[in-house]
Request: fold
Amino acid sequence: MLSFIQETPEVLDPASEEKTLSIYKLIVDGGLGGQIIIAILFVLLAVSLYIYFERFFAIKAAAKVDKNFMNQIKDYVSSGKIESADALCKSTNSPTARLIEKGISRIGKPLEDINTAIENAGKLEVYQLEKNVSVIATIAGAAPMIGFLGTVIGMIVAIHEIANSGGQIDIKMLSDGLYTAMTTTVAGLIVGIIAYISYNHIVVRTDKVMYQMEAKSVEFLDLLNEPV
Reply:
């Protein structure tokens, strides 16, 4: 009876250890190759999140336009107060205001020239809105491939251990290779998914600002095309 009581903890302890899973332990046990790849993926995640939030707040600010802005522009232009309209545009920090300002500066020229000037200014504004967004797209595509690279490295390590085991496989060394393979794959997919979602969200918000700019530009051109 005493012997049974003494052996029972030895049976339970390994079982309890097997159920314990630590992400930190997985990364540490993955070897140097896995740790390097995890570190690279962590840096890519930080870069993508930084660009996402920086662009998110920039686009959010760009989308804010006073509802009375175009009504004031119409009143100024209709009454011939071009300088007042231009001053209003300069005092309003938004892509839409800068497009209208470009159009106001061309008043008196053919409507086609005004339209071209607004379109060129619009391209510059879109470029500013999309600044560094392509980096997030690149990370979304590259992160899973980097994770897969870790998978390949881990499998090579595992196969190398099997080949050099001499018929006696070292489970510890074999598990290190498998840890590298699995943890880097999961990390790569997580970073890729986050970057992919971030990229698409930024693209959608940018498109909304672009449609807003286009609508206000057409409204301004219609104003200039109205018969006096």
